[in-house]
Amino acid sequence: MIVHTVTAQATVVLAQVEVKPDDSKAPGINALKDLVNGLAAYAVIAAVASVLLGGIAWALGERMGLDRTSAIGKSGVLAGFGLAFLVGATAAVVNFFLATGATASSGPVEQPQGLGRPAIVQTIDPADHVQALRHRSSDRFS
After folding, report:
1. What is the rounded CA–CA span in Å between residue 64 and residue 75?
2. pLDDT for 72-84, tens place per residue?
């Protein structure tokens, strides 16, 4: 009984917490946004450099027959494209999860009331089950 009371009180306290991001309430938010955008610009430049240098290494490795250089060049190209994708998709993915999380509810979950009996009830007799498991020797290979 005490556990139910404590749990109910904890649920009420947790239900009162609300999180709503607001740019106007955070001091220095514009400087932080500028910093993040600057880092994204550096990341895009690094992605372009990775694709270019990786492409050069890939081409020279293939032309000269240097398999290791060619493999490293391919990895560099793929890493550059992956970095560019991450930089471009990061804001969209974060905004998607922010919007999805904002729709979450901490309200009580409705439980179905009074589930009825199943429509079909099958009773298995243990003696019949054992008989069904025993096979005649002629049934094994037919």
Report:
1. 18
2. 999 999 999 999 9
